[in-house]
Amino acid sequence: MKKRIYIAIFFVILQIIPFYAIGDEIESIRNDVQSGSYDMEKINHAPIYIPDVSEINVIRAEKYEANPEIVQKYENAGMIAIEKMKMATLLYMGDEYDQKYGVDSSLFSEYHINYAWRLDDEELDNIYAQKQPISAGTVVDKIKMMVHELYDESIDIEIKRVEVTSSFQIGKMVSNEMTSKGDYEMGDLTGVGGYGFDAYPTLDGVPIIASAGSGYLEKGAEKIYSVLYFSNPEISAFYCSDDYMNISLTNVFKKKEVVFENVPLCGFDKVYEIVEKYVDEGKIKRVYNIILGYIIYLDKKEEYSDKKEKNGEQMDYADYLLIPTWIIGCSYSENGSNDDQTDMNSYDGSEQQDLNYQKIFIDAQTGKLHDPKEVGSERYYADVN
Predict the structure, then answer these.
(1) How many structural domains does the chain have?
(2) Are 6 and 28 in a shared domain?
(3) 77 in the same domain as 157
(4) Which residues constitute the domain of residue 232?
(5) 199 is a domain residue
(6) CA distances from 136 to 43, 124, 164, 298 (A)
(7) Cα–Cα distance between 116 and 160 in angstroms, integer?
(8) What are the pLDDT digits (tens) for 235-252?
(9) What is the pTM of this model?
(10) What is the pLDDT of residues 87-128, one digit of tens each?
């Protein structure tokens, strides 16, 4: 009897050890990044994002339609469902204001925070728009609650950009530039500023950053490219009050199957080595961010179509593979020259204004670079067995 107990305990220990090894591996990468071992000046002190998870899996996933009953609940509460389909849901509240006060107002950006995932809860709670009774952090909590309700608790968001806006303004074009001529009358919202948010959807705590089509210089004429183009995830929201807000959710994915669990990850040194080489060659002129997350790839076992309908129904009902990847957001020039298209005189240092902005993918398991010069449809398919 004792022998059987010992054997059972032994097998339990064998199952536990790999779990902690992988968890320690992610923590080890995090500690390595923070160790001071790397020349961060060479990569412009770019923020590096590592998800707060103990494991990362390879996942087979499909597009997730928002719960129709919950969408109806919001409609009953006064929101307008501008889009409600499998790939996109757009909910809008504010029609009463638009009907009463018109839609000729303008909003101006007061300031924005890129890579807002660096902010903790306290910092978000200290961000207030003009005359706003609630903070940006409280609004983020509202958005997360809506996402959980529309989908489920496995789906969350990672905020990537926060914008604090002016109140509704009377806008006028002066020298081809929109300028403010004072507050626009909006009843109780007159003079009240707002918040804009961009976010990544997350699955099991890992952000889904982009589809495989966005990692290459040549986008390709292949029909299959459009499948990936229309699979890019995007979540955005604007908030002025509970009575004036909107939220847009495009290409949220849900898990169908864990293909590989607790996958081993390469060290950050391999990632840095590739980035450093490109910087030294002059191909990367500026690194904006480095993110460990999911990239959406096609599955070789699936059939895909760029048509909007399949069997008479709106699609997309295909499966995709979410592959752990290091994503390098950078200003990239293949020939290493300085004749880029960005007007540096008006350049504010943000990727939004960089006409040479490019994502570069490095496989987080093997450390293999996905060469941005690569062409052909094979690059869009996951290299898994």
Answers:
(1) 2
(2) yes
(3) yes
(4) 63-256
(5) yes
(6) 30, 6, 9, 36
(7) 5
(8) 999 999 999 999 999 999
(9) 0.88
(10) 899 999 999 999 999 999 999 999 999 999 999 999 999 999
